[in-house]
Amino acid sequence: MGFELKRFWEQAHVAKVEGGFTVTLDERPLKTPQKRALIVPSKMLAAEIAAEWQAIEGKVETATMPYTSFAHAGLDQAVDERAEIAAKISLYGETDLLCYRAEAPQELVKRQAEAWDPLLAWSAETLGAPLAPTAGIVHLAQPEASLKSLTAHVQPYQGFALKALYDWVTISGSLVLGLAVAKKRLTAAEGWRLSRVDENWQEEQWGVDDEAKKLADSKHDTFLMVERALSLI
After folding, report:
1. What is the CATH code of the structural domain delimited by 12-75?
2. Helical ranges in the chain per DSSP H
3. Which portions of the chain are predicted below pLDDT 50?
4. CATH number for the segment(s) 80-231
5. Taking the alpha carbons of 106, 111, 117, 123 in that order, is the dihedral positive or negative?
6. Half-sphere exposure of 146 (CA within 13 A, CB side)
7. Which pTM does this prediction carry?
8. What pLDDT does residue 4 have?
9. Where in the chain is the domain with CATH 3.30.2180.10?
10. Span(s) in the chain for CATH 1.10.3580.10
11. 99 with 123: CB under 8 angstroms?
12. Which of 68, 186, 203, 22 is nearest to 118 (CA)?
């Protein structure tokens, strides 16, 4: 059985340190799972992390602590696995959600076009990466030059920004949409809405599935939280 950390501290504090701000549990500074000092660039982000630790009553469950998890990912995985994460993000361009359209009914076809065509135009014009849409689920190979251009746009991201981009892309299923949020072409709320065209259509036809809604709500919270976390830096 693994070690379970339970609350031992009276107060979680924000402390100014070299390189930024950390959180101390009484006098003990937090560390990441990889034993790095947990130092974030801003007092505001540190305050959100401290509030999560202050709210703990028993066992520590970082999976339910979004700002702490965001800091861990930005300081550990986005450093140790940066190349792998960037490569995984880039692969989404090969099967981008925005390119795979319904064949019917016509109302859904229309909704997808209205939501996604402007983003594909933005990808072509601003990212230098034209992508071709297709009807159905059969894989359509995209232009190699476009995929290379999208990969080049991913490469500069690191640390907390890479963590946020990873969440936006993997949750939405679209590299173009994720980059649009990261580059502020869209807000996270707009990006979430545009990524849910198919799901919203299904709910209108068949009603809301409780388990699917619970999962969607969790993804929605993460999608918006990483935008707010970045805004605090």
Report:
1. 3.30.2180.10
2. 43-54, 66-75, 77-80, 82-91, 106-126, 144-154, 159-172, 175-182, 188-195, 197-206, 210-231
3. 1
4. 1.10.3580.10
5. negative
6. 21
7. 0.95
8. 76
9. 12-75
10. 80-231
11. no
12. 186
